[in-house]
Amino acid sequence: MQRVVSFVLVCGLGAALVVAEEGMWTFDNPPVKQLAEKYGFTPTKEWLDHIRLSSVRFNDGGSGSFVSATGLVLTNHHVALGQLQKLSSPEKDYVADGFLARTPEEELRCPDLELNVLVSMEDVTARVLAAVKPGMSEKEANDARKAVIAAIEKESMEATGLRSDVVTLYQGGEYWLYRYKKYTDVRLVFAPEQQIAFYGGDPDNFTYPRYNLDMALFRVYENGRPVKPEHYLKWNPAGAADGELVFVSGHPGSTNRLYTLAQLATLRDVTYPMRLAGIERRLSVARAYAARGKEQARQAAGLIFGLENSQKALSGEFKGLKDPQLLQLKEKQEKELRAKVAANPAWQKEFGGAWDAIEKAQALFRARAKEYSYRRLGGYRLPSMALSIVQLVAELQKPDGERLDGYHDSQLPSLKFRLFSPAPIYPEFEEVLLADSLKEALEKLGPEDPFIKAVLDGKSPEEVAHEAISGTKLVDPAFRKQLVEGGQAAVAAADDPLIALARRVDPILRQERKWYEDTVQSIERSAGEKIGRARFAVYGKSMYPDATFTLRLAFGTVTGYPYNGTVAPSKTTFYGLYDRAASFDFKPPFHLPKRFLERKDKLDLATPLNFVCTCDIIGGNSGSPVVNRQGELVGLIFDGNIESLVGRFVFDITANRAVAVHTAGMTEALRKLYDAEFLVKELLGQ
User: Fold this and answer.
1) Is 164 in a helix, a strand, or coil?
2) Rounded Cα gap, residues 157 and 631, in angstroms
3) Which of 216, 267, 284 is nearest to 669 (CA)?
4) Which of 146, 224, 366, 583 is 20 to 30 A (C-alpha) from 659?
5) Which own/partner contact pairs does 439-447 have at CB distance under 8 Å and 24+ positions apart?
6) What's the pLDDT score for residue 312?
7) How many percent of the chain have pLDDT more than 70?
């Protein structure tokens, strides 16, 4: 980590300078100049539109792409994991055993998977900023922004029928309306065994060389028939070559590269320690539950996977954030921008106070971070469903622009789709998680805290969790729908113990949310807008915005890197997979699925399996397609290496690598290990 950050400092990276392969670029502002100067490649509008319209967002977290004329969508096994678990049962564990539908009739419809395709983008910055009038307080300005954003989204949805989201970019420097074609009839076609999809388990996670077949295929339906997308990526079975220019089109979740020093200090001193401690605790509870038996282990597997993944990622990010040289770099960048602003009296008058305003807001947040973080109805799925129902029926009584975020008219279809999901729920697991969440809140806040008094009502965390979960009927999606359709009166009259619990704590949670929005968020949004405009005034749009789980384009080359005193190759092969398994005597987590042992002789072991490239990615990019200059699919992003974790804050091309599955390896496995020649032919358009 020391070497990574030092390299960036040696480069003297200023706020206006972006290294060649750096950036998660929006499709309205692609890195045309960088590509032309370094690679002699200029993407045309048609090329960009094709890539954008072939790209898919998995709304439960992750990315994907259309890869056939009959609606096949490719993503990672670990992106598909939640749906695989929801489709599984004690008798059929599709996570562990994998799945292959050999006929359309065998394809399994996912209970609550929504896919989004970005069909248009519109700059609405002027309209949002115009809603803030001179003389407004920070709270009034924030309320005005939220109201106009809700109005823009509602107008767009009603006019187009498309999912419409106003996206904040450059910390409020720009606002864009993104319209998505939404698909909710999505069916599972193929997934390998988790053991090969996540080969090497947690020890190998965020490392390289890797040997993972981290892929899954879904098919999208509309009106009961497979969609025939106008745009899909042509499958190139040869895959990416060493030194080749490649692109990643996906949905990176979030980065903090444009954060102020004050915001980074809060992350370092408050947020990361709190989150990591919470993950460790939750992991301990989930693992103890899994140890109760085979079925409990199956139920907890998805949560444990997610927590372990988050723990490793956050630990790497936290380590980078604690490196004083990273903070020195950020301080240098911030001083440079502030000096340029101060040198211009008009800029100083308009933008100069923004950094101090954010610092004051952060100080207020740090003083109340404990209450804000632990006053919540934790647990797993059921408690959040109960709270959503209680809040939904109340918010529907208000004008759209005055509702809590998440309950606007434009957001209701997706909210109800999730809320009424028929996916299985496991009350025993829910109770364990809720009890520990309440116990943690009691320990952190103390028995006299208003939230603790309301949520426990004189009982122990275990008693409250048992009464709420064992007595609730929210496990039944029909009951959830009945409550929502009955409105506020039905929810107020319901004697369901979990709904009653949500009713008790809702006023306190609303109060906490209002405090945050009025005291912290409102100030940071106003100040963020000013800093965003200051950046544009000083540097133009030579910078890219922080990631926001919206579609971005990254580019780079397929290339290895120095590590551990040697060099990591740009690709790995099936030879390496079998060698790694043998080197650990085929013991977990380095064992292989049965078919990989029985069919080894059928494989061309020299076939590339994984590869690395210098494309700039982060969590949320999982499942993103890797494409070549021709717009053909040559790989599938599934991870970053350990050196990339500091990429939430800075990018270093020397060792920051995106890790992908090679199309040659996927083709070889489908044909020779899974007898899925019919899928290969569909992917190849034969």
Assistant:
1) strand
2) 31
3) 216
4) 583
5) 440/278, 440/281, 440/374, 440/378, 441/374, 441/375, 441/376, 441/378, 444/370, 444/374, 445/370, 445/371, 445/374, 445/375
6) 95
7) 97
